[in-house]
Amino acid sequence: MAAFKDHFTPVADAYRAFRPRYPRALFRWLGEVAPARGDALDCGCGNGQASLGLAEVFERVHAVDPGEAQVRQALLHPRVTYSVAPAEDTGLPPASVDLAIAAQAMHWFDLDRFYAELRRVARPGTVFAAVTYGLSRIDPEVDAVVDRLYHGLLAGDWPPERVHVESGYRTLPFPFPELEAPPLEIEERWPLDVFLGYLGTWSAVTAHRRRTGADPLAEIGPALRVAWGTPERPLRVTWPLAVRAGRILPHAGG
User: Fold this and answer.
1) pTM for this one?
2) Is 167 helix (H, G, I), strand (E, B) or coil?
3) pLDDT (tens digit, 9 = 90+) per residue, 194-212?
4) Theoretical Cys-Cys bridge with 47: which of 73, 95, 129, 227, CB 3.0 to 4.6 Å?
């Protein structure tokens, strides 16, 4: 098994404060395609952005993440149980979940072991959904500054797994018969300070600071403030969601 790549412990508190929330429409759709609305599993849950959405639809949510700092920051809910555990070894009993999800996390997994674990914990007809989102979009002026950060300043700081996020997980093996998800997007309305907080949760920003001792957000800050206009003015921020979902078959290949 590959070693756990912990990119997020240094920003666990910011991750909780500044990461966007997934749309309710995603969880409503998952509830419709799952065989039952009893038990859901959130793999690589972080601090529970998707776990809370699942709890609106499913009776019990089992949320696992190998990062103890992330789980300590978890967003509490009476129907969500958090555990420090990898997605490849959840600790759940066999045939115990109706739905499994990996939200902005599957590119970190050992997929052979993960898919074996999914088959182990799945009940008949269980659905698995891998969800990811890439670059935010606001308006052409702001987007140009963010693109300079993403593709320019941070070009050498993104982990290699980032390519799978950019492809919407189409570059990863997916051994289950796929379901067509509806078009979905994340939407937030944020002032500039919250958007900067979000940019600070990027793994490449942390890596750049470690590598160079410089803050890339300080470098783009003046241009971003000009593009934004009034800093306190909330702007509409969107992220298109990519969803790969399928029904788990016990003897599927892959």
Assistant:
1) 0.89
2) coil
3) 999 999 999 899 999 999 9
4) 73
- CA dist 101 and 58 (Å) reads 12
Report which secondary-structure segment, H or E, holds 189. Answer: strand 185-190
Q: What angle do CA 124, 130, 133 make, to 5 degrees?
A: 160
With 50 as the cut, is the pLDDT of residue 6 above it? no
- Cα of 188 vs its chain's centroid, Å: 16
Chain segment 86-144, per-residue pLDDT in tens: 999 999 999 999 999 999 999 999 999 999 999 999 999 999 999 999 899 999 999 99
Show Cβ contacts of residue 218 under 8 Å, excluding neighbours closer than 6 positions: none
CB 123 within 8 A of CB 185: no
Residue 39, SS3?
strand
Q: List all residues 6 or more positions away from 222 whose beta carbon is below 8 Å from its beta carbon.
A: none
| Largest separation between any pair of C-alpha atoms in the chain | 56
For residue 170, give Cα distances in angstroms to 109, 131, 160, 173, 244. Answer: 15, 11, 15, 8, 8
Secondary structure (3-state) at 185: strand
Query: What are the residues whose beta carbons fall under 8 Å from the beta carbon of 155, sequence distance 6 or more?
Result: none
